[in-house]
Amino acid sequence: MSTAILFWSLFAAQFMLGIAMLATLYRMVMGPRAQDRILALDALYVVALLMLITLGIRTNSQVYFELAMLIGLLGFVGTVALAKFLMRGEVIE
After folding, report:
1. DSSP summary character for residue 32
2. Using CA atoms, how far apart are residues 12 and 20, in angstroms rounded to an integer?
3. Count of domains in the chain?
4. Would you say residue 60 lies in a domain?
5. Long-range CB contacts (< 8 A, 24+ apart) of 76-79?
6. Which residue range is the domain that position 34 belongs to?
7. Which positions ≥6 away from 74 have C-beta within 8 Å?
8. Is residue 93 part of a domain?
């Protein structure tokens, strides 16, 4: 694979992921309900995770992959806690 093709495909992927981040941020701020905002937060951490992975591929550094794994774990736990809070009104039983 040519390095130019890899460079431009990663650039295009990061550009589209940036647009996706802006769209999810808009939904988080302007969401009509709390459920929409939590769903947008969930989508935002997935897009941020993908952005870190593409950045790790571009720079050939392992640190970005570890950060992406950490964001994935914390994002999942945060989404579950927020969903539980919306359903029951408390997080810890």
Report:
1. S
2. 12
3. 1
4. yes
5. 78/41, 78/45, 79/38, 79/41, 79/42, 79/45
6. 3-88
7. 45
8. no
Region of 59 on the Ramachandran plot (φ > 0 left; ψ -120 to 50 alpha; else beta): alpha
Report the CATH number that the domain containing residue 47 is assigned in CATH: 1.10.287
Contact 41, 79 (CB under 8 A): yes
Where does the pLDDT of residue 11 fall: very low under 50, low under 70, confident under 90, or very high at 90 and above?
very high
Give the angle subtended at the CA of 76 by the CAs of 24 and 61, to the nearest 5°. Answer: 80
pTM across the whole model: 0.85
Quick check: is 59 in a domain? yes
In a domain, 55, yes or no: yes
**Span 22-67, pLDDT tens digits:** 999 999 999 899 889 999 999 999 999 999 999 999 999 999 999 9
Q: DSSP label at 60?
A: T
